[in-house]
Design a protein that fits this description.
Blueprint lengths: L2 H5 L8 E4 L2 H9 L5 E6 L5 E5 L5 H9 L3 E3 L5 H11 L6 H10 L5 H9 L3 H25 L2 E4 L7 H10 L5 H24 L3 H23 L5 H9 L1 H5 L11 H16 L12
Parallel strand pairs: 1-5
Antiparallel strand pairs: 2-3, 2-4
């Protein structure tokens, strides 16, 4: 951790509840590549990753100066190297332990260490558990230093659970449903306003164009015909069918026409390109 984290940047401040995404935060603490920058959103608990050369530099600057985000300081390579050194003596398989000792010697130690464990599933899982435990210690210390208190994230129910809850839930009045929709709409507008504040002029143009498209499509649906039954609905769903003129079906051919067509088909099958003779030009 950096000196800022060790000094306790959140000392003396009341803890702030943050719904931490532990998996995303763990990835941010592990990835210490110099071109990767991770930020924790203090309201949602989401982790935003910015990569130099890919992200817009202006956007990166806006995020770095936004007080809603806190930059994540990943664990240094030296500290993660110590984790490998501490894990190797825990390996009971002596030949494997010796291979791991050789793997972490010199440049490319992390890659060779993972390559050796690739063919040893049990020890590989033990290494992942050991590394996750070390990362969890660093994450909790970092959160405490910044006066952040992790709280459980909202887990959306699956479809069966949702159906069961709706079945057991008491009946609601239309007034209650309208009030819930109003609160949800206000929340969505607030989230959209917060997102707009972080966008630049170019991104705002794109958002405005998309909003105009949604508005126009909604207006078009409002003017769409609502009558006509299933037949008209089928024609509207097929652009080819809707543009084609409605003509009556053709009459079935007569028996004489069928016989002539059959005779012509037989004669064509018997004649081959080599046996046919073209008439001489006159």
């Amino acid at each position: 951790m950096s000196d800022t984290d060790k000094s306790g940047a959140g000392a003396g401040q009341p803890p702030r509840d943050v719904p931490i995404d532990w998996e995303a935060l763990e990835d941010a603490f592990e990835n210490n590549a110099p071109e990767v920058h991770s930020y924790l959103h203090l309201s949602t608990g989401e982790v935003l990753r910015v990569v130099d050369g890919i992200a817009d530099p202006e956007m990166h600057q806006r995020i770095a100066s936004d007080t809603s985000y806190l930059r994540v300081e990943p664990v240094s390579s030296r500290e993660q190297y110590r984790w490998m050194e501490r894990f190797i003596p825990m390996v009971e398989d002596k030949p494997l332990s010796e291979l791991l000792v050789q793997a972490i010697d010199g440049k490319g130690a992390f890659r060779r260490f993972k390559d050796v464990l690739m063919s040893h599933g049990a020890e590989r899982e033990r290494w992942f558990a050991f590394r996750s435990e070390r990362l969890r210690v660093f994450m909790e210390a970092w959160l405490t230093a910044h006066a952040l208190k992790p709280v459980p994230r909202v887990v959306w129910p699956t479809e069966p659970e949702k159906a069961a809850r709706e079945k057991d839930a008491p009946a609601t009045t239309p007034q209650d449903a309208a009030a819930r929709r109003g609160r949800s709409l206000d929340t969505l507008r607030k989230q959209l306003h917060e997102l707009i504040e972080t966008l630049g002029a170019r991104d705002l143009d794109k958002v405005t164009a998309f909003a105009e498209f949604v508005k126009a499509r909604r207006a078009a649906r409002g003017f769409a015909p609502r009558d006509g039954g299933a037949e008209n609905a089928g024609l509207e769903s097929d652009p080819v069918a809707s543009s084609a003129p409605l003509t009556p079906p053709p009459e079935p051919p007569s028996e004489g026409a069928i016989e002539v067509a059959r005779t012509a088909a037989v004669s064509d099958d018997e004649a081959t390109p080599s046996s046919r003779k073209r008439p001489a030009a006159r």
